[in-house]
Design brief:
two-stranded antiparallel ribbon, globular, single chain
Length: about 300
């Protein structure tokens, strides 16, 4: 189904609300994201449906589902949203002063444990810049301005993005000194057969990785799983099991011990990414270069 959206009698704010609902999956979640009440979100959707003469959303339990017309409108609205964002990028790119707000996204552990010192230096050198730090393992959409700059562990493929490869890190598996005192230091992968592990929700992937290192284990070995790596690390620090972590972060805590680092290690590539048009903005360029330099310094200390 194809729906062509016309600017005539079309309220862009209502389309923004519709996109938020489509992405969040419920009126309440969309309201929280936009700072609106749930009834306000509902009224905006009703008004948009009346203006278009289409039913876009159906309620399913506590959530919502898009109708075929809703899916078509979503596609058109996303294109409009991207185009609007590009206009904003072009306008902001004309600024020649490093001041204003910059949104930077990085994984939770990197944003919390490694980057604060870099952020503080940026503020010292460029006091006119305000930083909005999105500490999340979710991939933020740079093209739609969910973030201006991203520090990622994979190379983005979108042609509109500017990508710089930074010095890679390495991940090892760690346990607390208390855990080692209770269980002993493993001499080989086979010694970890009954060990407790802590990891992400994708347990099969973790099991496959460790089995590839020769560790005889199954999903039952994973006593804690979470998408939040800060939680994983905290449970490992409390002696609850073995968790993976970047070397530079683990070395900040002398109570954490690498487990078989000569056998179990994972390279961690790092890429600094932003929209190509944002490189013409002084504030984006200043933060981008500072992050690149700061990351190099962090890696050189290892």
């Amino acid at each position: 189904m194809v729906v062509m959206l016309s600017g005539r009698d079309l309220d862009w704010n209502r389309l923004r609300v519709f996109l938020a609902v489509a992405e969040a999956g419920s009126f309440s979640a969309a309201g929280r994201a936009l700072g609106l009440t749930q009834p306000t979100v509902g009224r905006q959707i009703d008004a948009l449906e009346r203006a278009l003469g289409l039913t876009l959303i159906e309620r399913v339990g506590r959530g919502v589902a898009l109708t075929p017309a809703g899916e078509a409108v979503r596609t058109e609205a996303q294109q409009m949203d991207t185009a609007a964002a590009r206009l904003v990028l072009m306008a902001e790119g004309r600024s020649d002063r490093p001041e204003g707000r910059v949104a930077v996204t990085a994984s939770e552990v990197v944003a919390i444990y490694l980057l604060p010192q870099v952020f503080m230096r940026i503020r010292e050198v460029h006091p006119g810049i305000q930083l909005d730090v999105v500490a999340s393992n979710l991939t933020q959409d740079l093209q739609r301005r969910q973030a201006d700059i991203a520090l990622r562990n994979f190379r983005p493929t979108e042609s509109e993005l500017l990508v710089r490869s930074l010095k890679e890190s390495v991940g090892y598996f760690y346990a607390s000194r208390d855990w080692v005192a209770r269980h002993g230091r493993p001499k080989g992968p086979e010694d970890l057969a009954g060990a407790d592990f802590i990891g992400f929700d994708d347990v099969p992937a973790f099991v496959g990785l460790l089995q590839g290192f020769g560790v005889p284990l199954s999903s039952e070995n994973f006593v804690y799983t979470s998408e939040n790596q800060v939680f994983q690390w905290e449970m490992a620090r409390r002696g609850q099991g073995i968790a993976a972590m970047m070397r530079e972060i683990a070395e900040l805590d002398p109570q954490m011990v690498p487990i078989l680092p000569e056998v179990m290690s994972v390279p961690i590539p790092v890429f600094l990414t932003c929209h190509r048009e944002l490189k013409t903005s002084a504030r984006i360029r200043a933060v981008y270069e500072a992050l690149a330099d700061g990351w190099g310094e962090l890696m050189s200390r290892a």
